[in-house]
Amino acid sequence: MTDLNGRKALVTGAAQGLGEGMARALASAGAKVVVADLQQDLGLKVAESLGDGHGFVSLDVTDDAGWQDAVSQATGLLGGLDILINNAGIEITSLLVDLDAGAARKQLEVNLLGTALGIKHAFRAMRPGGAAGNGGGGINVASVGATIAFPAIGVYSATKSGVDRLTRVAAMESGRLGYGVRVNCIYPGLVPTAMGAGLASDVARLGLFGSAEEAVGAVVGLTPSGRLGEVADMASAVVFLASDEASFINGVGLPVDGGMGM
Ligand SMILES: NC(=O)c1ccc[n+]([C@@H]2O[C@H](COP(=O)([O-])OP(=O)(O)OC[C@H]3O[C@@H](n4cnc5c(N)ncnc54)[C@H](O)[C@@H]3O)[C@@H](O)[C@H]2O)c1
Question: Which residues are marked as active site?
Answer without folding.
Answer: 156
